[in-house]
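Researcher: Quick test of sequence recovery. Tokens follow.
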């Protein structure tokens, strides 16, 4: 039996979700909340396997409630259920510790699958949400790569050569040997590269090298 906390401020919507869940004997709604603060309190009191939270709720919104439940009742997996699919809501929910994100307009089978996944310690995103997340990740990677290429393009040819070897994981002594210079010269180049790339250490510089396609 999977014990569920259902938090939804619209009574009719809450009743509808409860009715859907009652169709599966594996699920038991052990508590219902009409606002985020109540959801947090009930999660602490009942410690259900899954907290099913709406995002837009009075007193305390679902995103804040999700973060609070995750912090104080870590054994309860949070699954967001909402009409919204804006990227900022998805990111905020996942950053707050939610393990899943579903749209109310989705198939009830997605709801069942999401609850089972979260109760089992896994994560679950509805196909629509998963697509948006993937697209955002792709966009972030493209943006990161473009920035890396711009920064690397501002380096001198020799600095790019040194950066490529740093990206390959070579120590200063080996870089000096390959470039036929003294190790002190390599240290000067590396210091300049870190400053111009706006990074704090060699690992971050190596990441930029990979993103820019030098390695």
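Model:
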């Amino acid at each position: 039996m999977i014990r569920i906390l259902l938090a939804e401020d619209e009574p009719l919507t809450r009743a509808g979700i409860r009715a859907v869940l009652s169709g599966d004997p594996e699920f038991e709604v052990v508590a219902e909340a009409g606002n985020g603060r109540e959801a947090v309190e009930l999660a602490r009191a009942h410690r259900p396997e899954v907290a099913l939270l709406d995002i837009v709720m009075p007193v305390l919104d679902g995103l804040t409630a999700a973060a609070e439940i995750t912090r104080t009742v870590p054994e309860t997996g949070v699954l967001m259920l909402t009409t919204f699919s804006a990227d900022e809501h998805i990111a905020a929910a996942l950053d707050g510790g939610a393990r899943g994100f579903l749209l109310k307009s989705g198939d009830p089978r997605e709801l069942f699958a999401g609850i089972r996944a979260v109760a089992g310690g896994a994560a679950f995103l509805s196909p629509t949400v998963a697509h948006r997340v993937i697209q955002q990740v792709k966009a972030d990677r493209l943006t990161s790569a473009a920035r890396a290429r711009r920064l690397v393009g501002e380096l001198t040819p020799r600095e790019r050569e040194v950066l490529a070897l740093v990206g390959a994981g070579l120590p200063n002594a080996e870089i000096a040997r390959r470039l036929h210079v003294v190790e002190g010269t390599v240290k000067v180049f590396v210091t300049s590269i870190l400053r111009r790339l706006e990074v704090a250490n060699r690992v971050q510089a190596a990441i930029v090298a990979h993103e820019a396609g030098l390695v």
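Residues 2-132 form a domain with the Rossmann fold fold (CATH 3.40.50.2300).
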